[in-house]
Amino acid sequence: AADAMEMLLLSVLGPALRCDWRLTSTEVAGITTVVFAGMLLGAPGWGAVSDKRGRWSVFALSLCLMAYFGLLCSFSPDYFWLVSLRGVVGFNIGGAASSFTLLSEYLPQQHRAKVLILYNLFWGLGSTFEILLAYLVLPTLGWRYLVAFSSLPLFLFMLTLGFLLASGRAEEAAAVIDQIARENRRPAMEGRPAVATSDRGQLKALFHPFYRRTSFILFSLWFGVAFSYYGIVLVSTEIFRFHQDCFSTAQSVTVAHNTTESVVDNSCCRGLQSDDYTAMLISSLGEFVIIPVNMLTIDALGRRATLGINYLLTGVFFGLTYLCVPKAATTAFLFLIRAHSAGIFNTIYIYTTEVYPTVIRSLGLGICSAMARLGSMTTPFVAQVIMPDVSVLLAFISQSLFSLALAADGASAADGASAADGIQKD
């Protein structure tokens, strides 16, 4: 939830600073891109350390640093300091995936998919809360207070980290497992855990002949889902500015040059309005709606169908959003894109943790997350540069066609899910 708040902050921070600091479109996109660049570096780095040293130490340290530098961002005196500090925040967000890896390792196969999908409920809660917070704080107190308040939940969540998880400490691990067995009134574990040392956290293991094809397919899918998901997050704050004529809400202003003439104000410096927040909130609710749908499809239809359907519908609704239709219809399209792109994220996280073994699981998730950050770094220039400065149509075509192209690729990757489950059993 705290991770989602830091990420969704980007969708409202750019438009606010565009007006306050008179930023160009490229500078606005840079605020978002630098966070994803930090994640690009942080995700594989934290993932490798997590496989070598354990999940807890990485998760706790990255959480502390994320909270500290997130708070410092609110004191940024200028654009350089803001993007520098946001880059450090992004680097530490890359370590947050350790929590997902940790939970996946505790869950038995028959319950794993459903519980991990429910886990994403908290991302939706965090993103929705951030939009409500922005609605209350941004117009009255300004962006600095919003940035500060967005970091506070991280400090609160650090108080919940009172547990031990370390790599390579077999006896302590055995004691924890025995305690779990006693509390659940189950028989004690037979034998003792062994310490695996070969290929632990080694990048080359991801490209072993057994994993190579799956790794490359996953890289493309992670790139694509981030490109689509964060594309719609950023487009949600921009699209209504470009559809003013469709909604019949363009405002006229009077300018005097010896004559009085009515013109349309097309200034890029337009603060978010209450209906913009409403549309963003409605689109965020799509993340909740897709959760029960994914819970039904991921086991009943499999990873292949779930990924393929969500990618296909994301592309279709992205294309429909460009159409000049009533505002309610545009908001509905945003809702459906957000839902299906979140559904891709839900599924691909689960598949990735299933397909890689324990010794490279965090590293594999980290590298895939890094590929997603490449997609995330690309999408601000589509939503915040190409859309306002080049062509709205070109921006939507690129988003739509990319998702449609990956629908078949998603089906291909998911074919390996049954094999991955077999690896887990072995």
From TrEMBL:
One of its GO terms (cellular component) is membrane. Residues 1-415 form the Major facilitator superfamily (MFS) profile domain. One of its GO terms (molecular function) is transmembrane transporter activity. Keywords: Membrane, Transmembrane, Transmembrane helix, Transport. It is found in: Membrane. The chain crosses the membrane at residues 28-49, 56-77, 83-103, 115-137, 143-166, 216-235, 390-408. It is a multi-pass membrane protein. Its main location: membrane. InterPro entries: MFS, MFS_dom, MFS_sugar_transport-like, MFS_trans_sf. PANTHER family: SVOP LIKE (PTHR23511:SF45), SYNAPTIC VESICLE GLYCOPROTEIN 2 (PTHR23511). Belongs to the major facilitator superfamily. This is MFS domain-containing protein.
